[in-house]
């Protein structure tokens, strides 16, 4: 195939596989459990999984009893099963969130296989490191997020496409590649809807470029039934829900950026932040191999499709996820061939930046536990009033060990993979320290548990219905999950005795209603909830 010029020319010893596996395990597992569902995506998707596990209807996603056509159900099926299986050991939300860890591990594994098939063994070890260090993946890989399942199956499709492009002459197994392509393409749709299909569909030209029609036929033979299974079942059992799902996606596709007038600089800012540091490395790779881009044809096609999707939508972090997979695969082809000055600068920047942030996290932990420094402790108290923290010995020991491991990594011998490893290890360090030392403080401010329990206490035990005004999906999902309260939209509220509204401090009760309660999350003083009772 077209692989030769993209093979790393470095004479450095390879990064030990055990070190990569350990780093990936710490990165994926830390901070996934031991906290409540958080606003916004985390609460919504845990709510959907909880609905599957407790409601008995597994056909369509629901948020607090109402259809939610914004997603596909595969991730939530897995999350619901994990919640039921491990429910005796963990809270449901912690067990369900392990679905992200599972799909995250599949993503890193398939990403490594894809990079290895496309660019060689060195790229296969660089790609997971680049993914771990990518800022745009940090939050999605640690919350309940179906987009991670879409990434995992798209990476599987790229792996299959890479094996097909190698061809039998290169010692690869095109049939195995066709199977991987078919599974990845087929499951990308129930995992992440049309976005997942967009990411994985970029690989379909691989067997066409290779003129391997048998592999193309086999991939489609596997993919088409997997894609069609859920729509056929849903359209036969609940055609109104299938129509609602299609209508929502049609509306999404119709809302283009130019029509809504979103400034281009907002997309650029979001793109640069979410793709750091793979964006400049990918740009370097394209420049380095500008006269021989054929081995990058498939990732470049995926990048083009993802850019079109990103630029015709809202500039959110989740909208950048389809870009990250092709960016990482392109960057993996050239990261080990950075010029010495650029590699040293990249390495130095990672070590100094992450070390400084680690010191700040430890300082914040000291402020929370020991009230020192006083000024910092006072700031923490302002942001989360009433929060207290006591660190278990095991948590402190873990934080100390991971900090020492980071310091020891400074002594690593010079190697082509050292800058990439330091960036991935630094990202893992910051996340692990924050999840260990700041988790209870973050959870205190981001969870709706306290406000939901306070609301429940203000209501009578028996309720007919509660009309809602201004509550978002995450708020409704949290109320349903924590205290079993489901609100009614105004159009169907009729003569509900109670009304729950979101508003601002000091607002007056609407005419005909009497205020009975108000509350808010400790970290959010703008978002306030008001409970009103209808006047008789």
What does this entry look like structurally?
The chain is built from 24 helices and six strands. The protein is mainly alpha-helical and 536 residues long. It has three domains: 228 residues, no CATH class; 102 residues, no CATH class; 86 residues, no CATH class. Strands 3-4-6-5 form a four-stranded mixed beta sheet. Strands 1-2 form a two-stranded antiparallel ribbon. Helix 3 crosses helix 4, helix 4 runs parallel beside helix 7 and helix 5 packs antiparallel against helix 16. The longest helix is centred in the middle third of the chain and has 31 residues. The protein starts with 16 loop residues before the first helix and ends with a strand. The N terminus is likely disordered.
Q: Average the pLDDT over all residues and give the rounded result.
A: 91
Strand order of the largest sheet: 3-4-6-5
Taking the sheet with the most strands, its summary is: 4 strands, mixed
End-to-end Cα distance, whole Å, is: 79 Å
Number of domains: 3
Tags for this model:
single chain, 536 residues, mainly alpha, 3 domains, four-stranded mixed beta sheet, two-stranded antiparallel sheet, 24 helices, 5% strand, globular, disordered N terminus
């Amino acid at each position: 195939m077209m692989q030769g010029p993209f093979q790393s020319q470095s004479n450095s010893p390879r990064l030990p596989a055990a070190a990569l596996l350990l780093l990936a395990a710490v990165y994926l597992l830390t901070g996934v459990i031991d906290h409540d569902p958080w606003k916004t995506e985390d609460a919504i998707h845990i709510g959907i999984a909880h609905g599957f596990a407790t409601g008995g209807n597994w056909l369509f996603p629901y948020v607090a009893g109402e259809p939610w056509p914004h997603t596909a159900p595969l991730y939530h099926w897995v999350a619901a099963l994990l919640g039921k299986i491990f429910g005796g050991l963990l809270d449901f939300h912690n067990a369900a969130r392990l679905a992200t860890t599972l799909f995250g591990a599949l993503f890193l594994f398939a990403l490594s296989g894809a990079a290895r098939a496309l660019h060689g063994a060195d790229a296969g070890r660089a790609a997971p490191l680049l993914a771990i260090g990518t800022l745009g993946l940090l939050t999605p890989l640690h919350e309940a997020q179906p987009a991670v399942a879409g990434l995992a199956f798209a990476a599987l499709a790229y792996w299959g496409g890479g094996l097909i492009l190698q061809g039998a002459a290169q010692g690869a197994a095109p049939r195995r590649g066709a199977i991987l392509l078919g599974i990845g393409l087929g499951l990308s749709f129930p995992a992440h809807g049309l976005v997942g299909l967009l990411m994985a569909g970029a690989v379909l030209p691989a067997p066409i470029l290779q003129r391997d029609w048998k592999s193309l036929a086999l991939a489609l033979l596997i993919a088409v039934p997997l894609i069609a299974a859920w729509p056929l079942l849903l359209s036969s059992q609940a055609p109104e829900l299938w129509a609602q799902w299609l209508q929502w996606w049609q509306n999404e596709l119709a809302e283009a950026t130019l029509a809504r007038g979103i400034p281009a600089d907002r997309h650029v800012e979001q793109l640069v932040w979410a793709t750091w540091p793979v964006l400049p490395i990918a740009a370097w790779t394209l420049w380095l191999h500008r006269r021989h881009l054929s081995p990058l044809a498939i990732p470049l096609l995926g990048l083009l499709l993802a850019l079109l999707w990103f630029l015709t939508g809202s500039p959110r972090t989740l909208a950048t996820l389809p870009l990250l997979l092709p960016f990482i695969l392109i960057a993996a082809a050239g990261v080990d061939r950075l010029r010495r000055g650029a590699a040293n600068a990249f390495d130095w920047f990672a070590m100094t930046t992450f070390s400084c942030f680690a010191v700040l996290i430890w300082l914040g932990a000291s402020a929370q536990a020991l009230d020192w420094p006083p000024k910092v402790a006072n700031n923490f108290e302002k942001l989360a009033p009433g929060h207290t923290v006591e660190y278990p010995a095991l948590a402190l020991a873990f934080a100390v060990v991971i900090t020492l491991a980071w310091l020891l990594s400074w002594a690593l011998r010079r190697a082509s993979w050292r800058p990439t490893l330091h960036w991935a290890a630094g990202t893992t360090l910051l996340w692990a320290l924050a999840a260990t030392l700041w988790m209870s403080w973050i959870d205190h401010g981001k969870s709706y548990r306290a406000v939901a329990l306070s609301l429940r206490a203000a209501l009578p035990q028996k309720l007919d219905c509660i009309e809602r005004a201004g509550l978002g999906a995450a708020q409704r999902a949290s109320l349903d999950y924590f205290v079993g309260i489901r609100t009614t939209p105004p159009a169907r509220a009729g003569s509900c005795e109670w009304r729950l509204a979101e508003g601002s401090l000091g607002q007056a009760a609407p005419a005909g209603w009497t205020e009975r309660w108000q509350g808010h999350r400790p970290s959010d003083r703008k978002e306030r909830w008001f409970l009103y009772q209808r006047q008789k």
